[in-house]
């Protein structure tokens, strides 16, 4: 896959690799989480020679991902939805319940997918399963090389061949080797070494919260309803999984989350039942547990010379409204559109392509980061004006159908143009087996 262009089975004749002392690829993805693996598959699908740096592993700690409609279409087009579908459950209703005991307590609000013409808002799957399926697909692609070493820095840019306008950027690995690429995609998380090496400033903040995660079985059917209780310490969310199973994301005080993590299974199940007001009946813990500190991150730009940020290297916020990974997958699809749509994609790391990507991501990422942050802070504040505004907003959503539908569409898809691979045209999502 590396160095010798004549041996590579490229589907797109515009992209090529030349002989050189460093291993050279069209695109190098740093980070082997869900966003990074999806990026590798997306660009290999376009005929680029791709390298992935990092070890693909996600612990089974109870965390799940609600893949919204556009993300499901992306998975389908990448050829992995068939493998994911048996492990996923549809989300047909998103139910919000004000459990703050506020003076301005809002009514229950149901967002129903049928109101905006969808069979499901999305599908919920365990994060570890998603990463494993993506990793298997990457390993099966001859256009993708995988390196388990860690990236330690970015080197200088050089021309690929004397007199050529094509540029490359080098990445140093912890085993002493180097990789060169025309474009580096930094998908290496919120503490991204690539972001720091590229000199992109990031602002981070912490919330006085942590999320307890686990998997539950329960005696009542969830009926494909995701239920989010808004409590004074954050959302308590039950999200459907196949069968009489659900995933739990309980955002609460850090000390409480850490304490709950060490409860015996039966005792923890009883506490969760009470917090859920027994809506799913008797519960049993059916998986490992995790505790995730809640924090946020925003960057001042989404690109540098021959480098693009995606996923949590570019944005992070609390797990409210299933926006996190879906936003990262939209980064992937938007970067693909920017690269392929600029000069036919001949130079994937061109300044024009990355400027187009940067412009396109600003509104989508920043508006969603702000929206999630504001909602979370109103829950934490306990101030009557904040409660009034939140309660009034939820009452309006419950009562005004056009407003509710607009919010549902905005939550599932961006207000601006949806990236091509996430559009519904000519796509059908198969039901789980």
From TrEMBL:
Source organism superkingdom = Bacteria
Instruction: Please verify whether the record's keywords include Flavoprotein.
Output: yes
InterPro entries for the chain: FAD-bd (IPR002938), FAD/NAD-bd_sf (IPR036188), UbiH/COQ6 (IPR010971), UbiH/COQ6_monooxygenase (IPR051205)
GO molecular function per UniProt: FAD binding; monooxygenase activity; oxidoreductase activity, acting on paired donors, with incorporation or reduction of molecular oxygen
Q: Which SUPFAM superfamilies match?
A: FAD/NAD(P)-binding domain
Q: What keywords would UniProt list here?
A: FAD, Flavoprotein, Monooxygenase, Oxidoreductase
Query: Which GO biological process annotations does it have?
Result: ubiquinone biosynthetic process
Family to which this protein belongs: Belongs to the UbiH/COQ6 family.
The protein's name in its UniProt record: 2-octaprenyl-6-methoxyphenol hydroxylase
UniProt source species: Saliniramus fredricksonii
Gene for this chain: ubiH-2
């Amino acid at each position: 896959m590396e160095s010798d262009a004549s041996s590579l089975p490229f589907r797109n004749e515009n992209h090529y690799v030349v002989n050189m002392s460093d291993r050279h690829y069209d695109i190098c993805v740093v980070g082997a989480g869900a966003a990074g693996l999806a990026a590798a598959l997306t660009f290999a699908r376009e005929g680029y020679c791709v390298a992935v740096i990092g070890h693909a592993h996600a612990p089974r700690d109870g965390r799940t991902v609600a893949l919204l409609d556009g993300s499901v279409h992306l998975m389908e087009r990448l050829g992995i939805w068939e493998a994911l579908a048996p492990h996923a459950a549809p989300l047909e209703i998103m139910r919000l319940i004000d459990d703050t005991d506020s003076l301005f307590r809002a009514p229950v609000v149901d967002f129903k997918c049928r109101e905006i013409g969808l069979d499901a808002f999305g599908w919920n799957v365990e994060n570890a399963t998603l990463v494993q399926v993506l990793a298997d697909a990457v390993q099966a692609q001859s256009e993708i090389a995988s390196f388990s070493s860690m990236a330690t820095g970015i080197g200088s840019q050089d021309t690929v061949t004397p007199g050529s306008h094509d540029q490359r950027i080098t990445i140093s690995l912890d085993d002493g080797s180097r990789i060169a690429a025309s474009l580096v995609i930094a998908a290496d998380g919120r503490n991204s070494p690539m972001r720091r090496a590229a000199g992109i400033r990031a602002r981070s903040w912490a919330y006085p919260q942590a999320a307890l995660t686990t998997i539950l079985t329960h005696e009542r059917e969830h009926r494909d309803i995701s239920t989010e209780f808004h409590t004074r310490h954050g959302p308590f969310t039950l999200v459907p999984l196949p069968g009489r199973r659900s995933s739990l994301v309980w955002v609460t005080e850090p000390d409480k989350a850490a304490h709950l993590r060490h409860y015996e299974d039966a005792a923890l199940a009883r506490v969760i039942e009470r917090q859920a007001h027994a809506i799913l009946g008797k519960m049993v813990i059916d998986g490992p547990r995790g505790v995730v500190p809640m924090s946020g991150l925003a960057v001042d730009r989404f690109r540098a010379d021959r480098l693009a940020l995606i996923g949590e290297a570019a944005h992070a916020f609390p797990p409210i409204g299933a926006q996190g990974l879906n936003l990262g997958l939209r980064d992937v699809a938007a970067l693909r559109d920017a690269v392929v749509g600029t000069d036919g994609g001949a130079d994937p790391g061109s300044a024009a392509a990355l400027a187009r990507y940067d412009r396109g991501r600003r509104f989508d990422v920043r508006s969603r980061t702000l929206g999630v942050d504001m909602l979370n802070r109103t829950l934490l504040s306990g101030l009557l004006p904040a409660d009034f505004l939140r309660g009034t907003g939820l009452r309006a959503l419950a009562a005004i159908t056009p407003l509710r539908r607009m919010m549902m569409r905005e939550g599932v898809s961006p207000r601006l143009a949806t990236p091509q691979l996430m559009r519904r045209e000519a796509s059908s999502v198969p039901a789980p087996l």
